[in-house]
Sequence to fold (231 residues):
Amino acid sequence: MLAEAVLPVTVFIIEVAEHEQQRLMPLFPVDECHVVTLSSANLDDVMPTEVPDVLLINAERGASAVLETVRHLRRRWPSPSLLCIHVQSADDAVELLKNGADDVSMQEVPFDVLSALIGAALRRARITNEQLRIKFGDIVYDREARRVWCAGREVVFTPRELRLFDILFQRAGTPVSADTLQDFVWKDGPPTKSNSLAVYIGYLRRKLKGSQISMLETLRGSGYRLARRTE
Fold:
């Protein structure tokens, strides 16, 4: 039997020295987490399609040194859990929590407590993702964030491709007529070419070709359908 898609939790680790990264990495199993290490200076280089589920920032230099980074992270990504580690004082902890952190770990906290805090953040992220992301075979759709994954890899659609995918996914397993698709996808007016719908169906097929479970079917006389492959 083909396996359903399991998406890793995306974790951004920020301002953490290499030796500390090595200590932390075992807390993020490679088959469950996608870890990106960053400095405050290169946060703006993160691609728009790279969206974190958990933000982990080193605050050992003091709240004043990382406060603007915390605010920046929270402005850009309002939803992920934001955990500040190696916080120096209670005053720093209060300041960081007031400015966007969800949790803090003090400098003197034992490593097993830090490990448990990180584990809790990952668990919350998985629960949130399960609630927001809909699966059809190994295709996963986060409709709120307008993000799609196929066989564990994110797929980037143009706005029109996404509208076409959206209606096919929402009616997965059911034929959708060409007229319905055209009305939904070309809300700004009918397509200029008679084969425009077929062309966009081809775009979707190419972008979803990595799926081992799902396929986009052409049903002559009935339209198109996102369906499961026959095993």
User: Anything to note?
Assistant: The chain has two domains: 9-133, 137-228.
